[in-house]
Write a structure and sequence with these properties.
By secondary structure, this protein is of the alpha/beta class. It contains four helices and seven strands. The longest helix is centred in the N-terminal third of the chain and has 11 residues.
Length: 174
């Protein structure tokens, strides 16, 4: 979907396609959450419980929580709570990949405690318990510093699970 976010029917189709999966990778343009450029997500938003369909916070309340935490810059805006609820309810190892923010980041979201933490770019250590939100560096986008070098993520999957991940950078200026 476009960077604006997901329509309700897109979220429903995604949830249906993930039912019964042994593991999954979901790719979309803008990330669901974006860690601060300097710092860790747990420093500004250590836990995010998006509830169930029956007891979820109103979209406006969730959006205010995310805005106050500073994790809404450059992310998908339509239906973030609905999308997060569906992804967290998947009972298999799940990794999301997105771009849009032009640098590599990794956020682990614990499905039982709803704790969030920034982690190094790597395969999930507890894939059955956590959902990994990854952003990839962009080819052709240059931001100051090593983390801003253009590149991509190289991933290996086995039996539906992400088992290795490496960040590859591209030389610039030559």
């Amino acid at each position: 979907p476009e960077s604006e976010g997901f329509y309700e029917d897109q979220v429903r189709q995604l949830a249906e396609s993930l039912q019964g999966a042994r593991g999954a990778a979901v790719f979309f343009h803008s990330p669901l959450l974006h860690a601060p450029d300097h710092g860790r997500i747990e420093d500004c938003l250590g836990r995010l419980d998006v509830g169930t369909r029956r007891n979820s916070e109103s979209p406006a309340t969730l959006e205010r929580t995310l805005q106050r935490a500073g994790v809404r810059q450059g992310v998908c805006f339509r239906n973030p709570g609905t999308l997060a609820r569906e992804l967290l309810s998947v009972e298999c190892p799940l990794v999301t990949f997105s771009g849009h923010v032009h640098h590599g980041t990794a956020i682990e979201w614990d499905r039982t405690t709803f704790g969030l933490r920034s982690v190094p770019l790597r395969a999930p250590q507890h894939p059955a318990r956590t959902m990994m939100l990854l952003t990839a560096p962009a080819i052709g986008q240059v931001v100051a510093g090593e983390e801003g070098l253009p590149g991509y993520l190289l991933c290996k999957f086995e039996d539906g699970k992400l088992v290795s991940l490496a960040r590859r950078t591209l030389p610039i200026g030559h």
